[in-house]
Amino acid sequence: MPRTLQKVHKQIAKKRGAVDALHEFSRDARRLRRAGARDDRLVHHTSAVLKARQPYMERLHYFFDAIQTTEQPLTDAELGELVTKCIHRDAEEIAELEKERRKGRPPTRREEALKQRTQTEEKEFKTGFWVPDLGDEETLLKLKHWNGEWTALSSAKFARLLNTGGKQSSSFPPKSMS
């Protein structure tokens, strides 16, 4: 039972005893329905936020794994190579899925999703790919010791890296072109 509904349920049970014996249109029954609806809205909002963050979290986990052996801050060229590897990280799986598919058959959902993600990230790389600023030593250390939580990244520096080699500072959390 979610927190708000549990709280209201407990208050009503303390006052009345059995909550099962409520009249359908009583005040307490309406309180329970409102609390349930409020909890449903909160759960829906939380899942939408987590779903929107998921691509960024996957990207950050990739960079987290990639820099574990790195000692020095990366140059812009090295960061560009790392971003290119990040964008094409699923190339082997896509090739394997294409090879397994019989001739003339449509691609699987997994294959389509991987191709679409690669295309989206390539487009983003042209306009500015959102990455942790690994050229900054402090950010490099923070990301190396990152605990995997979204909120733990608020003090790290981020940048938008262009495929032409330019780099602009960015904010956390990522916005459209911050």
UniProtKB/TrEMBL annotation:
Biased composition (Basic and acidic residues): 108-118
Database matches in Pfam families: Tma16
Spans annotated as Disordered: 97-118
InterPro entries linked to this entry: Tma16, Tma16_sf
Gene3D superfamilies per the UniProt record, alphabetical: Translation machinery-associated protein 16-like
A cellular component annotation (GO) from this entry: nucleus
Family (UniProt): Belongs to the TMA16 family.
Protein name: Translation machinery-associated protein 16
Native source species: Penicillium malachiteum
